[in-house]
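Example 4.3 (complexes with small molecules)
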Amino acid sequence: MIIAFDGHSSTGKSSLAKEIAKHYHFIHLDSGALYRTITFITILENKSFDELLDENYCIPFLTVKCDDNELSIFYKNQKLESQLRTQEVNSKVSKIASQPRVRDYVTSLIRETLKDKSVVADGRDIGTEVFPNSDLKFFITAKPEIRSKRRFLEVQASGGNSSLESIHQNLMDRDKIDSSREVAPLRVAEDAIFIDNTFLTKEETFILVKSYIDRKIEDISE
Ligand code: DC
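Answer. The structure with 2'-deoxycytidine-5'-monophosphate bound is encoded below.
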């Protein structure tokens, strides 16, 4: 079974997908982390994406493993986590993710790594491009001001000091690039369930999504 969560930045879709995956014992894929990984490595190595690739169309020393129902990403034996969430990566990732060759690389990597597995995947193009035959597709959004405020509170809680204005600007810039790029732009799939969680708590969003999934599982098993 494949469940796709696409939508805008800072709508809580990645934490939601993670909780849903945990609940149903599926693998969780945060596809944004893969775009962030490429961005991180290009910054670290000071190379373009094409310069990172070897003759086998691989990035040397990059490994993606599936453990504990999550994908773990390692570069040069170091697990990548907080390095992917810096302001520098935030400000560059959408541009890198708009390159057709980068999208091709990430899409192939996802399909190969998750072949034959039950997956809850989140991103911008999961239901439209990566897994168009997903069993269920959700599109998650919320008002921009609410998303910026949620992100601001998260950054503050983790000790960061970015201003609300700079976070809002970064979100707006990313929305614009993600929605207007030529390849696989962020859009609502025709068969997606649209959820605006501006006025919903995390728990309410989870319960709503779970009700659709439970119904789908019942339909499949009938
Ligand atoms: O979900 P996120 O904020 O971690 O994603 C980081 C960036 O990666 C986002 O600005 C757009 C890009 N992305 C994408 O283009 N396609 C995906 N499936 C996931 C993320």
